[in-house]
Amino acid sequence: MLQTFTVTGMTCGHCENAVTQAVLSVDPQAKVNIDRMANQVTVESAQARKDIASAIAEEGYAVAA
Description:
The structure is a single chain. By secondary structure, the protein is an alpha+beta fold. It has one domain (2-64): Alpha-Beta Plaits. It has helices spanning 13-26, 49-58; strands at 2-8, 31-35, 40-44, 62-64. The longest helix has 14 residues, at 13-26.
């Protein structure tokens, strides 16, 4: 299932890596695509949206519903 999140606070490659690792901690098989200029994170995963959003938020990034 393809899910798109609006994530603010990503300013560099390190931020992108942190968000990617957060998603992969929930689903190691997930495919993650980040466009930090658009504040968008697209995730292909069967995991629940709330679980992915929570993992990203735990890294310190704001995730819009």
